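The methods section describes the discrete structure representation at length, but only in general terms. What matters is that the chain and its backbone geometry are given together, residue for residue. For illustration, here is how one protein appears when written out as sequence plus structure tokens:
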Amino acid sequence: MQRNSIRKLSLGLILAVLVSMFYRFWLTYPILQNLTVSEWRIVAILAAAIFGAASALAKLPTYFSVPVILAALFFGGAWAGLSAPRDVPTTFLAEFAGHLRVFWPEVVLLSAVSLICSLCCAHVLQRKHV
């Protein structure tokens, strides 16, 4: 494996862990009780834009960082579902399917915002170097 591929994989893994941890804690943090759905969406969109900009600043290719962020959002949602108190034991796949069924529009929106922000930041960085 080339050195660049190892760097890309390690940065992608770090990005995936950060996004999934942030999303999991965001879904389970008690402040959600005080926010409306639109306020929650605005803050989540801002966070997705920050992650998109961070991936562009780390010089991760967009074709690599956006699927990583998408997978991390689904993983973080399933992780949040597993941490919720339940009477009946559940599996990770059941929580993943449940999160996918309910939250797929939000996850697609957050991924699209991350993509747009990553593309814009990469464009600005390219123009700066030229």
In short: Residues 3-129 form one domain. The two ends are 30 Å apart (CA to CA). The mean pLDDT is 86. The first helix runs from residue 3 to 28.
